[in-house]
Amino acid sequence: xxxxxxxxxxxxxxxxxxxxxxxxxxxxxxxxxxxxxxxxxxxxxxxxxxxxxxxxxxxxxxxxxxxxx
Length: 69
Hints:
Elements: H1 2-30, H2 36-59
């Protein structure tokens, strides 16, 4: 089972990098637009890029696991 966890981390890393790069490229293209729908698109692309950063941090073990009390 440990090897499966390693494969899942690699897939998550590759997916996060690919999606993150395309989100940042799209956000750069949308940056100068001023319509309401463009602002919503910028917000969603920014959240997508932020989510990719969180995936990268989790895959490298930087984020805490939690566990509670």
